[in-house]
Design a protein that fits this description.
single chain; 299 residues; globular; binds magnesium ion; three-stranded mixed sheet; 9 strands; 35% helix; alpha/beta; binds guanosine-5'-triphosphate; 9 helices
């Protein structure tokens, strides 16, 4: 029996913190998109490639959809909707414990208006009583004509295989758009910057993570096979800089150490990481800073 080559884009959209990046990582089996307990972690589209039989499923993790205030936020939300618009299929991922919040209802209604194929995925089933799931699915399916619905836990992996199999069958027939052993199209420089940002989200609090962006400034391959990476962390205010550096540089040292560990695993080689903290008022409204992380569409 010959298999049919299939390939298509599947966007994962939802409210902040629904578990979109966790699901992308689980489906691809790699830590491609950063995950933290804080909302608004993901800032741009992250492609993850799932190979299954002769199907290539191009998963697109997107920033959470919320009511944007500053230019950075607007660009993030625009990137999420562009992801959905450009996809063959959109998954609305919902945190089952949070339920049908106003945010989720708004996204479902907008998806319904787009008239494009969408599936409902209830996530975090490990956190709720199973009898609550069906009514939640019914509530959301009343708002948008989801073709199918799934219930899973991206954290434990429960139910994820069923979704993967269904996606592999659902993507359209056609040639593969990426080499079959690729995992993502994210450049290593961006991956490095994201790894540092993940540690900032994990190790600082309140407004500090949201006042921060990271850019890889320098990347040097060394003869011994290791890589030397210099990254700049931009913050909005002097107080943020003081917090990031910490007493006697303790915080920045810890951020660097953990990010280096993660990068060593991701890149599978020795990493020398140097971090620089710079204060730059208004970076979150600046075209160049947004472009540096691939955000240039404010559709
Ligand atoms: N218990 C449980 N926690 C989960 C599950 N999926 C994700 N999480 C947790 O939820 C939090 C948010 O996960 P993310 O994957 O970063 O969520 P996201 O939707 O990508 O968030 P943004 O990028 O901010 O929009 C993290 O602490 C995850 O560990 C799940 O199935 N069960
Ligand atoms: Mg995310």
């Amino acid at each position: 029996m010959t298999q049919t080559s299939r390939c298509g884009f599947v966007a994962i959209v939802g409210a902040p913190n629904a578990g979109k990046s966790t699901l992308l990582n689980r489906l691809t089996g790699a830590r491609l998109s950063i995950v933290t307990p804080k909302a608004q972690t993901t800032r741009f589209r992250v492609l993850g490639i799932l190979m299954r039989g002769d199907s290539q499923v191009l998963l697109v993790d997107t920033p959470g959809i919320f009511r944007p205030r500053r230019r950075l936020d607007r660009a993030m939300v625009a990137a999420a909707w562009t992801g959905a618009h450009d996809a063959d299929l959109t998954l609305l991922l919902v945190d089952s414990r949070a339920g049908a919040t106003e945010e989720v209802r708004g996204i479902a209604e907008r998806l319904a208006g787009s008239k494009r194929p969408a599936w409902l995925v209830l996530n975090k089933t490990d956190l709720v009583d199973p009898p609550k799931l069906l009514p939640l699915a019914a509530t959301l399916t009343a708002l948008a004509p989801f073709e199918r619905s799934f219930m899973l836990s991206a954290s434990t992996g429960d139910g994820v295989n069923d979704l993967a199999a269904a996606l592999a069958e659902a993507v359209p027939e056609g040639p593969h758009l990426y080499p079959d052993d690729d995992l993502t199209d994210l450049p290593d420089r961006l991956l490095a910057a994201e790894t540092v940002r993940e540690q900032i989200f994990l190790q600082t609090h309140e407004e500090v993570p949201y006042a921060t962006t990271v850019e890889t400034e320098n990347w040097q391959e060394r003869k011994d096979g290791s890589v030397r990476i210099e990254a700049t962390i931009y913050v909005l205010r002097p107080a943020h800089k003081a917090i990031l550096i910490g007493e006697h540089g303790a915080r920045i040292k810890q951020i660097g150490a953990r990010a280096r560990e993660a990068l060593t695993q991701l890149l599978e080689r020795k990493v020398h990481l140097f971090l620089n903290v710079k204060q730059r008022a208004g970076w979150d409204e600046e075209t160049a800073r947004l472009r540096a992380i691939g955000l240039n569409d404010t559709r």
